[in-house]
Specification:
This protein has helices at about 25-30, 35-50, 65-70, 95-105, 115-130, 160-170, 185-190, 215-220; strands at about 85-90, 110, 135, 150-155, 170-180, 200-205, 225-230. It is α/β, with parallel strands linked by helices. The chain has a seven-stranded mixed beta sheet with strand order 3-2-1-4-5-7-6, with helices on both faces. Strand 1, helix 4 (about 95-105) and strand 2 form a beta-alpha-beta unit. Helix 2 runs antiparallel to helix 4. It is globular, with a radius of gyration of 18 Å.
């Protein structure tokens, strides 16, 4: 546990000073033309994420590694064709939806978030970055049923896989996918029998970013799990 400035060893608390994490050259190269928008989003999170209750105090020094790059793990699972619809449920601070929108301006991104203060934040980010491919919905996933379907539905830190499948299965277009960012418990959640009623093909993928990107294996480890529906 890192010590804070007063030397108590209690770890960083809300309001304590922090040193923002700097993206490496490998991260800059990965995001390419989208880097400026992604960097501005990271800056907004650094300035307001904690104050607005979007991120915890221990997240502030690792926004790039824990949140931005982690969210980028879903990019390989996005539709190849332009004009497709992507729905990010429980979008919260905008992860991974904002990262997808910045990197894939050819896709239509929908951010679904039930809490008004988070919706206000998402709208500010969308306007600040000039993301004209994003629509923000103040709604729970269940409330969007019957209002359209997406080619890909994404989720990060929303619910376990069993519950997530029940929440989103009716929001996914035929042949579409649910892409959930999961941690080390992903294989355990995935093998639970009750998932089998909705999933026809499961493609688990565990992405470890290049060593030069990460400070620790735990920080950068991510497991996007793709489920295809028909």
């Amino acid at each position: 546990m890192s010590e804070n400035l007063n030397g108590t060893g209690r770890g960083r608390q809300v309001g304590d000073p922090f040193v923002p994490e700097e993206p490496t050259q490998a991260v800059r190269d990965f995001f390419g033309p989208a880097f400026s928008d992604v960097a501005e989003y990271a800056r907004m999170l650094e300035e307001e994420g904690e104050l607005r209750g979007l991120l915890g105090p221990r997240d502030m020094e690792r926004i790039w590694s824990r949140h931005i790059v982690n969210s980028a793990a879903v990019l390989d699972f996005m539709p190849r064709k332009e004009g497709r619809e992507v729905l990010d449920v429980g979008s919260g601070s905008g992860l991974p939806g904002i990262v997808i929108a910045a990197c894939r301006p050819d896709l239509h991104i929908h951010l679904a978030e039930p809490m008004a203060r988070r919706v206000e934040w998402l709208e500010e980010v969308v306007e600040g970055l000039g993301l004209d491919n994003v629509t923000v919905h103040q709604a729970r996933a269940e409330e969007l049923r019957g209002k359209g379907k997406a080619d890909v539905v994404t989720a990060r830190a929303v619910a376990n896989m069993s519950k997530l499948v029940r929440m989103t299965s009716k929001l996914i277009a035929p042949g579409g996918s649910l892409v959930a960012l999961k941690g080390r418990r992903a294989p355990i959640e995935w093998t639970r029998p009750r998932l089998s009623y909705a999933v026809t093909t499961c493609v688990p993928r565990y992405t470890r970013f290049p060593r030069s990107w990460r400070k620790s294996r735990r920080t950068w480890w991510s497991a996007p799990v793709s489920s295809r529906f028909c």
